[in-house]
Amino acid sequence: MRLRLHRPALGLGGRTLLAVVCCFLGSAGLAPAGDENAAIPAPHKEVPQATVRQGAIHPAPIQVDVNMVVVNVTVTDPYDRIVTGLDQTNFQVYDEKVEQQIVSFSTEDAPISVGLIFDCSGSMGDKIQKSKEAALQFFRTSNPQDEFMLVSFSDSPDLVSSFTSKFENIQDRLLTVKSSGRTALLDAIYLGLSEAKRASTSRKALLVISDGGDNHSRYTENDIKRAVRESDVQVYAVGIFEPLSGRARTPEEARGPSLLSELADVSGGRMFSVEDASELPDITEKISIELRNQYVIGYRPSNLVRDGRWRRIRVKLNPPRGLPPLQVYARTGYYAPTQ
Fold this sequence. Notes:
Layout: E1 2-5, E2 40-41, E3 69-76, E4 83-84, E5 91-95, E6 98-100, E7 102-106, E8 113-119, H1 128-140, E9 147-153, E10 157-164, H2 167-174, H3 185-196, E11 204-210, H4 221-230, E12 233-240, H5 251-267, E13 270-274, H6 280-291, E14 295-299, E15 310-317, E16 327-330, E17 333-335
Parallel strand pairs: 8-9, 8-11, 11-12, 12-13
Antiparallel strand pairs: 1-2, 1-4, 3-14, 3-16, 5-6, 5-15, 7-14, 9-10, 15-17
Helix pairs in contact: 1-6, 3-4, 4-5
């Protein structure tokens, strides 16, 4: 077994290379700190890996006939670089504090459906061009089997394009989006979650690009948190926030960073806070890489109770000796089935 690590994208150095988890399916392999070009060897072990077959998981999260819980896991080093090359023996999974037997393990790069939730409210005026470039960079680093959707929002959300495998179609429509109006962020996320149910792949994610908190939605924060928990959609958020000292923020704008962070965390995603819009393309490219370098762990809960309640998941890492402290990112839980 060899551990490797992705070098940080130019422009950000070691400052930001994602780490996160989704809910279903994942992929690939890399490693820890030290020289950026180094591959750090670990003791070789042949571990049988159960392949997670594409499409084998029902679109409804967790509530599946075979009671299989599948968790996407990302591991990073102290420099926030993605670590791959670990095997099944390096992971332990706890469901409601009870250790579970891992029955499937994969690093497969399966196709993914990504919905872009794009802020075009009035406050995005001087940032909207860089935000468009960031979205296009994300599309360019995708796989041919991936599909994409676009929801833009200002006073209300607009489904600009339903899922398509031809990102050029979305690119053309994105270029015509203009900045105006207020910010219906929560309504846009809700629409994105609803449309994700129509995706053709079993892996789903939303990429939210916004510069502030909600100030024009019908749905509440609690509504959206519940919807994210119930979905099988991983939420990534890129928040373009000016420094607190730079302007007087409304209460909604001040709440924006923590709201996006909470939504990302509960889904196994991650929120990136940006003050310089020129960093956006690098960050979205990192998110694209992140989605293709995750461990996919499956287990059948030994202590499952069909009561519809929220069940907490914890993924623990037992890394090979000699590695620096590593960080694990994974979905925090799921709702138990009721039948």
